[in-house]
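User: Show me a protein chain along with its predicted structure.
Assistant: Here is one chain, sequence first, then structure tokens.
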Amino acid sequence: MTDTILVERDGAIATVVLNRPEKLNALTKPMWRRLGEVMTELSAEESLRCVVLRGAGGKSFAPGNDISEFETERANAAQAKLYGEILHFTLGAIRDCRHPTVALIEGICIGGGLEIAALCDLRICGESSRFGVPIKRLGLVMAYDEIAGLAALVGRAATLEILLEGRVFGAQEAKDKGLVTRIVPDAEVARETMATARRIAEGAPLVARWHKKFLRRLDDPAPLTQAESDEGFACFDTEDFRIGTRSFLAKITPEFKGR
């Protein structure tokens, strides 16, 4: 059986592929579980510098969950809770990944697919990409752990608009709402996303991790501790800082070590 979650490598960049193109990459329970495991494993890798998430086939990122599973895996609240534990573990693994994450969005990005993309740090889509969460037609709710990433990205008002209307809308509206970072011609999505990943990977990896950590901490209204404030200066004691400053002065490209 073909693996439904693939990991491809290009140096310090890992590409995670939702690999079910015959179903437009609709997510099943095993796919959700494996995606969470893969993201947890990748986050622990010290040599990694960027993770790209994409769907296979070039026609769809993901249309959400495979509705055919509902009768067997989510037929009642008890089953749905068990399913939700897997789904929420995976969304948390994407959100908490230490490395920068970029969603490569071709075609459809709806429902659970949009939940995944919303938790990535950057989202690059094609001009014909489509977005939405039309779950009102299923009598289905987006639970707290699922709605949190979307609300954090676009705010309460836009989240309610997306959920209450249940419309499927285009790339420009998604950009206007803050759902996507960049729109490019359909034929250029993969090239631009990988170019973005390479630009990220060329930077000092510890700095990227710190910036992700700092921004996440600023979502917490609690005052920063002295130790947290001091961490903002820890970069000055790193080998990468010395490499970066020397390379700048010498007008050469730095080769960061992640130390």
